Amino acid sequence: MTAVTTTAATAEREASMSSRVRPGEIWRIVRLLAVNPTIFFGVPWLILGGAWAVTMIVALIIQGAGGAAVDASDIQEGFRYSWAVLSPQWYLVAVGVQAVAFTFSFALGFGSTRRDYWLGLSAMFVFVAAEMAVAIATLVQIEKATGGWWIGAGMFDTLWYGQSGWTFDFFTTFSLQLFVLFVGAGVTTVYMRWRVRGMMTLFFSFVALVLALIAGFTFTNTWPAVLSWFASIGLLGVFTLTLVAAVVAAVAGFLVIRKATPR
Q1: Other CB atoms closer than 10 Å to residue 205's CB: what's the count?
Q2: What number of other Cβ atoms are within 10 A of residue 7's Cβ?
Q3: Residue 39 backbone phi and psi in degrees, to 5
Q4: Residue 110 carries which DSSP code?
Q5: Tens digits of residue pLDDT in 133-167
Q6: Beta carbons of 85 and 155 less than 8 angstroms apart
Q7: Higher confidence at residue 217 or residue 263?
Q8: How many Cβ atoms are within 10 Å of 83's Cβ, its own excluded?
Q9: pLDDT at residue 4 above 90?
Q10: CA-CA-CA-CA torsion sign (70, 76, 79, 81)
């Protein structure tokens, strides 16, 4: 009788812990993830700094080779389609993967619930995305104010950046970074729950969906309508959809990790 009562009390306590938000436990997860701050705050900026240095060197080479015939504004216009500003995004996908793979089992071993863990992970992702978005949006304005770092180099004021103000640059960067982080984390939850079978199922399902969409748009001759729709919503609409996709990936990752077995 005593054993049954104890088991029931334990189950009730665990259910109560998983049904409420515990800020202290969430903050503990954030601190756990920040034990090695280089992963979140060091390497992305090393990548971005390396891309900036290469951009400066290329701009100086072009300026030196062209001499007086090459204007700084001409050099900067040539950098308009540089993708260097997006160089950390590929690494951030790996950050999302590593964050779950290396800390999930450890956190649960120290008494955190899956809900605490995912909320703490989400808080860390939001902070990282916001920190980089503020910095990049500000660097865009500095680059514009200095005429491309005084030599016409275009590192941040490229692609869609620098066209619609600081707030727009912040929003687009924040949405994109949050998306890649949660995609990396969400894919890892699939592996942690279903292992290789789950990953293969996810991969082939994604490929099948893409091929089905391409075939559907092709055979129904709706590509012009699709492209027109994207043009009508503009970049703001596209990055709003990106933010929505990030939220969907976050929710899906939580639903999957609720049943994942730490190993």
Answers
A1: 10
A2: 10
A3: -60, -45
A4: T
A5: 999 999 999 999 998 888 888 899 999 999 889 99
A6: yes
A7: 217
A8: 10
A9: no
A10: negative
